[in-house]
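Hello support,

Our group uses your service weekly, and this is the first time we've seen a run hang past the timeout. The protein is Phosphatidylglycerol--prolipoprotein diacylglyceryl transferase. I'm not sure whether the cause is the sequence or the server load. Input pasted verbatim:
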Amino acid sequence: MGTLLLDPIAFSIGSLSVHWYGLILGTAAIVGLLLAIQEGKRFGIPSDFFMDLLLLGVPSAIIGARIYYVAFTWDDYKNNLWDVFKIWNGGIAIYGALIGAIICAFFYFRHKGYNFWRIVDICAPSLIIGQAIGRWGNFVNQEAYGGPVDESFLRNTLHLPDFIVNQMNVQGTFHHPTFLYESLWNIAGLIILLVLRRQKFMRAGELFLSYFIWYSIGRFFIEALRTDSLGFQGPEWLASLVNALWSPMTAMGFELGYLDPAYGNIRISQVLSIAIIIVAIILIVVRRVTGASNERYMDPIVSSKTPADGGSDNVSELERKKDHRNESSSIGSGTDQKKE
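Update from on-call engineer: The timeout came from a worker crash unrelated to the input. Re-ran successfully.
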């Protein structure tokens, strides 16, 4: 255990303790929800749609995050399966959370009759701001930090305030505030996404894929600084490739964080980040070449479901108005002919 200077418990109600970590994650979810609702209004998507998505997506994300973590640390759980369910003891992974949330979203969007790529584009800024805020939960819990650094690096080089520097003192040793690095990276990513989504060249799905590219680039470099990475035993050529790609960080004076040899020689999140970047770029190119992304981000979004099926009634309402105008025109024409 580290030397916690901040109390992880915000307040207690009787025997129930409310942790800052939960409050911070709750705040992240609400901010992300409000951002999606605001953008959804531009396309006529009701706020209830995103509220239901959040209610379904959060549990799915937690389940996915836990399954991902347990799958890569199975030796720690195989002899005591009950511990698999003890998420309050820690052990979740952000990539697993994204996988769980995306699977849930796919079926939810399909049920509502919306195109998957159009809605995830709207949700992309919500995801990245949620991650930016959520990382501060790691700060309060004094976890997910990087390798050792001098106190002067934090105070004089990074010019961090005392409350961050002091919290990075774990059992007498100062560490990289990797939570802060990732939070700031995500905030920069949010700004980029907000600018990109107003550009006419953006096609359906490309904002969502841009989110994954941006986040994965940052995660690749930041992950190697951490001391709690999940890993696996891979071929030496792959380990050498990962280290070579990370070498610019070494040139800037950063050092690799500790990786438990029991986990392996390659950090899972780094390899996954590389794979996601490659796949996202390929998808953007292929979807453009094949015409799968003919729709642009700014184009109207409609549901294939009728109001009776629980879908959007925007198209039906427009059709009713159009029919009414046509009927009026026909009646008017008929009246004029009779007068003649």
